[in-house]
Amino acid sequence: MPRDYVKAPDREFEAQVAQFLANRGNPFRMSALLSAMVLLFVATATSWSQSLTWLGTLGGVESVAYGVSADGRVVVGWALNDAGQRRAFRWTESGGMQVLGTLPGGGWSYAFGVSADGRVVVGSAITAAGRWRAFRWTAAGGMEDLNTTYARLLTPGSRLVRATAISPNGRYIVGYGYNAATRREEAFLLDTGATRRVPAEPQQQPQQKPQRKKPQHKELQRTRR
Domain ranges in the chain? Predict the structure, then answer.
């Protein structure tokens, strides 16, 4: 991926240098300022590194990103494929742009939000009947219609149209839909009731060295006697 790196000037560091030069006659003051300058330089050096990454498309001529994980390693949005269809995607630096698919029999799909760990994606997709419905996607479960998964929470006639964001832990989903009780479109907050945690990395057990067996020929000789 093409990247452009730039370095931004740090005004606070420049001010420290000017103050250091102004106190050249006081060795104790100069020592304290020098220590502060070193700490400030170390603290801000990492923030100077910046980058820009173009994510590409799914074979079409357009793509849009809407959400990003806490560490910036996962990006979600939609992109055109070579057939001109809009498909929700999940992008990673190692795997590139991954198509999240559609709801059964549907066409277009959009991804709008992603959890902090990048494992849960939410958005909206068209059903086989041509209606937009909010979805949640995971690698294990694929794309699921939230109206089906949480049907027991919906009053008759109500529907969740679009999921626009998800909480960092993956439990809460927000968006908008149709509230049959008020007969209007309204924002919603869905509590899925479960926090999706990142599974711990398996720890490698230290290999135990095989114990050497003591030679027993002396004991055999004693028993023979």
Answer: 11-48, 59-191
Check whether 80 has a pLDDT greater than 70: yes
> What pLDDT, on a 0 to 100 scale, did the predictor assign at position 2?
40
Q: What are phi and psi of 127, to 5 degrees?
A: -85, 180
Angle at 120 between CA 113 and CA 158, to 5 degrees: 65
The residue whose two tokens read 């799909």 is 109
Instruction: Give residue 86's identity as a one-letter amino acid code.
Output: R
pLDDT tens-digit map of 182-213: 999 999 999 999 765 544 434 444 445 555 55
By the 10 Å C-beta count (0-12 exposed, 13-18 middle, 19+ buried), 160 is classed as buried
Which tokens sit at 17?
């240098």
Cα–Cα distances in angstroms (integers) from residue 148 to residues 88, 134, 151, 160, in the given order: 20, 10, 5, 10
CATH code assigned to 59-191: 2.120.10.30
Assign 68 to helix, strand or coil. Answer: strand
Whether this prediction's pTM lies above 0.85 is answered by no
